[in-house]
Structure formats: C-alpha cells, structure tokens
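Let us walk through a complete example step by step. Step one is to write down the protein sequence. Step two is to encode the small molecule, adenosine-5'-triphosphate, as a SMILES string so that its atoms and bonds are unambiguous. Step three, shown after the inputs, is the structure prediction itself.
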Amino acid sequence: MSAKKNHNNKFIFDKENKLFHKFPSQLMLKSELEMTLKAKELSDRSGLFYVPNVVDYTKDKLIFELLACNTSLRAYFLKSTKTFSMSKDNLVDIRKVFFNVGLVLGEIHSNNQVFLGVKKKYLDLEFNINEGDNVYLHGDFSISNVLYDVNLKRISVIDWSLSQLFSSPANYGPRYWDLTFFISTFFYASLSTYYSYKLREILVREFLLGYLEKTQIDRNIFSNNLGQFIYQFNTYELYDKMNNEKVSGLKSLLWQRSKSKLLSFSKRIEQDFL
Ligand SMILES: Nc1ncnc2c1ncn2[C@@H]1O[C@H](COP(=O)(O)OP(=O)(O)OP(=O)(O)O)[C@@H](O)[C@H]1O
Ligand SMILES: [Mg+2]
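Step three: the predicted structure of the complex.
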C-alpha cells in the first residue's frame, strides 16, 4: 500500500486506494462512528456540507474515503490573510465561507432529530440554560475539523468526536459548546496572525449570523448566553485548569494574547452583538 503514516501512527493516508485510516481509542471509536454515520445522512439531505463516507471499520480503526482536498479552514484563513492587504473580492469570499460554516453548524443543531437513537452522553459543564439549548453536538468543532475545498466551494465536517480537552466522549449538551470551541480555536494567535483580530471578529460575526439564520432562538438571550459561555468555558480557560504545567516564552505570549482578545470579544458579544 502506498501509504503515508503520520508521526504518531494515528492516521494513514492511502492515496492509491483513496482511503483515510484513523485509529481512535476504543472509547472514542464507537461514538465517532455513530455520530459520523448520522451526520452523513444529514449532509446528504441538506446539501449544505459534506461528510466523508465511512468505507469500513474494525474494532480499532475507522476507514474513510480520502478527500482530494483536505485544506482546513485554518489553512484557508492563513492563506487568505497572506494576500491581505486582501483584495475586496477575497474578503467577500472569506466572509461568505464563514457565514456558510455558521449555516452548517446551525443546520446540525437544528436538525438534531437525525441523531436520535445515538445514546446521549452529556457534556459535563455546568451552565444554566433552557432545555431547548441542549442539543446533539459535534463536540470538536474547531477550525481544523472544518475543511474547505476552494475549487468545489465545499465545506466538509470531519472528526465527529469529543475535544481532546476531555477524557471521555460526550455528544450532547449546550449548543454554546460547539460555538465556543470554534471561536476559541479561531482566536488562537500565531506570529503571522498576531495583528489580524479585526478581521477575525468580522469573520466570527459572519459565522454567528449564519448560525442564527438557521436557528429559532431569541437573539438577545443567545448573545448573552454565548458571551458568558465563552468567558467560562473557552479552550484557554479549560486548558489552563486541566494542565498545571507552565508554558513559557513566545508560546505563553501568544497564548495570553489569544485569551485576552477572546475574553474582550466575549464581553462585547454579551453587550452589543445584535
Ligand atoms: N477523509 C479524509 N480525507 C483526507 N484527509 C483527512 C480526512 N479526514 C481527516 N483528514 C486529515 O487528517 C487530519 C486528522 O484527522 P481527524 O481530525 O479526523 O483526526 P484527529 O485525531 O482529531 O486529529 P487532530 O487531533 O489532528 O484533529 C485532519 O485534520 C485532516 O487534515
Ligand atoms: Mg481533528
């Protein structure tokens, strides 16, 4: 097999047979398999996004169709910001993509009946919301798990498992989890994107507008809850709580910047989003 293994043998990219092999822990595998199959049904029905086919599986491996283009939304954003002084056209394109990613997550959360039958495993975060705000979650909706094919103009959603911040799979809980996770990962600063927060806010707002277009929800309550949820459960806060080891140097600087930008954004959403 002409296959390329990644450094920790978690995946095999088998180009010859157009397959992608993934080796999740046994605890995660069943949950990822079940959620992926249901999500595939929804993606076929809605036509708004794509989920790679599960070709086969064993007790320790999932085999997916290999996507020809697996550019993540993160990579697409980085590429676009490089051409920033971005042309007006580029900016229109990327805004539209983020709006559409919002539509996709809204579609997932508001067509939740497709997941019925998958055993609910609650995300264990204490947050006071209406029962209607508890939904089946993607769980790891980061900008690396959303892929964008520029040629097909197609959004794919992969990796239907729980964030590695947690030790056991959960697939049900506050809608704000997927939103917060996406926004937190998008706010992560690298050196090349150190100054691009204005653009990030514009894109996050597009994402949220897309989300709301698909969701029957009171906008004031939504922004209030989301602001508070981001404040309490952003990935930086959770990671800091779970890992006591200190990061230092440049990494710490980037981390602090990401977190402080995110927290001030969460305050603004709470006060004036809509
Ligand atoms: N069906 C696919 N076809 C092509 N590439 C894929 C496919 N699924 C995943 N990939 C690529 O492999 C990477 C890892 O896959 P995935 O996100 O499912 O695993 P993971 O264990 O969560 O890894 P990570 O921790 O890096 O997110 C993805 O970021 C993507 O670039
Ligand atoms: Mg992933």
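Step four is interpretation. The longest strand covers residues 11-14.
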